[in-house]
Amino acid sequence: MSAPYVGRFAPSPTGPLHAGSLVAALASWLDARAQGGRWLVRIEDVDPPRCVPGADRLILDQLARCGLVPDEPPVWQSQRAALYAQALERLKAAGWAYPCACSRKDIDAALAARGIVHERHGERVYPGTCRAGLAGRPARAWRVRTVDADHHLIAIDWTDRRLGRQHQDLSATVGDFVLKRADGLWAYQLAVVVDDGEQGITDIVRGEDLADNTARQIHLQRLLGLPTPRYLHTPLVLDAQGEKLSKQTGAPALDTRDPAAAVRAAASVLGLQADAGDLGDVLAALVAGWRARWL
C-alpha cells in the first residue's frame, strides 16, 4: 500500500514570486488536491547570501492571495542544519562522503589537463582529485562519491510523469558533487533530499529546469535509505527572448491584484482552462481539469 500523498512547493526567498513561480506552485497544489493529499510549503533559504530580507513572508502572502495555503505551517531550511549534519555524518561513516581541497580554479586546471574546457553555465564535472585523499592540503568542502567502492560508475534511471523515461550518467556528466560548501553552507542537493525525506514527501511537482537535479537527488536518497518520490516536471514560462522567466533575468513580481486572473494565466501554461469567476470557482475547476489530464 502506497503512503498517503504529500506534496510540496519549495521556493527560494531570493525575491517575490513571478509568473513562472506561480505555475510550479499551482501545479504542485493541484496535484495534491486532485489526489486528496496534503500540500506543504518549505522556504529554501539554505543560501543566505542570495536571500532577500522579507521575501519569504512576501512569497507566503502571494500564495495565500492566490488561494494556495499549505496544510501545515511552513518550515525554513535555515532552521534545519542539524538534520543536514546528521545526514552528512551517515554518508561519511558509510564511506560515501569525503573532504575536498579543490577550488574552482583547481578543478578547471585538472579538467584542462585532460583537454576539457569548462563552458560558461555548463556542468563543471569534478574529476575526483581528492577522492583518494587530500595530499596534505586543507579541506574546503565535502563531496559525495558517484563511483562505488569497486570503482563502478553510477547511472540513474527514473521516470517523469510528463517527460517520460530519463537517464543520467552521474559519474560522467556530474562527477562527485558538493554536500557542504567551502563557505560552510549546506548544498541544495543534500538539504532538499533530507527535507523531502523528513517531511514524508511522496510527490514532487516542480519546473522542468530542475529535472537535471533529479538523478543527484535519487542517488542521495538511495545512499541515505530514503524513498524516492514520484516526479512531475512542469513546462517553463519563457520571456520574449525565449529564455526561462526568472528573478535573475528581471522577471517582474507576480501581480496578485486579481488573483483569479493570475491563477488562470498560470493554469494556461499547464494546458488547463477555467471560466472567469471568483477564485474559489476557478481553483475548483482547475482541480477537476488536473485530475482529468494528469491522473
UniProtKB/TrEMBL annotation:
For this UniProt record, give its keywords in alphabetical order, as a comma-separated list. Answer: Aminoacyl-tRNA synthetase, ATP-binding, Ligase, Metal-binding, Nucleotide-binding, Protein biosynthesis, Zinc
Q: Where does ATP bind?
A: K247
According to the entry, every stretch annotated as the Glutamyl/glutaminyl-tRNA synthetase class Ib catalytic domain falls at 8-250
Q: Per the UniProt record, which EC number(s) apply here? A: 6.1.1.-
Placement of sequence motif 'HIGH' region? 11-21
Q: How is the cofactor bound?
A: Binds 1 zinc ion per subunit.
Q: Where does L-glutamate bind?
A: R8, F9, A10, P11, S12, E44, Y188, R206
Which major enzyme category is it?
A: ligase
What's any one GO cellular component for it?
cytosol
Motif: 'KMSKS' region; annotated at 244-248
Among Gene3D superfamilies, the record links this protein to: HUPs
State the InterPro entries in the record. Answer: Glu-Q_tRNA(Asp)_Synthase, Glu/Gln-tRNA-synth, Glu/Gln-tRNA-synth_Ib_cat-dom, GluQ/Sye, Rossmann-like_a/b/a_fold
Entry's NCBIfam families?
PRK05710.1-2 (NF004313), PRK05710.1-3 (NF004314), PRK05710.1-4 (NF004315), queuosine_YadB (TIGR03838)
Q: What protein family does this chain belong to? A: Belongs to the class-I aminoacyl-tRNA synthetase family. GluQ subfamily.
Q: What does this protein do?
A: Catalyzes the tRNA-independent activation of glutamate in presence of ATP and the subsequent transfer of glutamate onto a tRNA(Asp). Glutamate is transferred on the 2-amino-5-(4,5-dihydroxy-2-cyclopenten-1-yl) moiety of the queuosine in the wobble position of the QUC anticodon.
Q: What protein name does the entry list?
A: Glutamyl-Q tRNA(Asp) synthetase
Organism of origin: Caldimonas caldifontis
Q: What is the lineage of its organism?
A: Bacteria, Pseudomonadati, Pseudomonadota, Betaproteobacteria, Burkholderiales
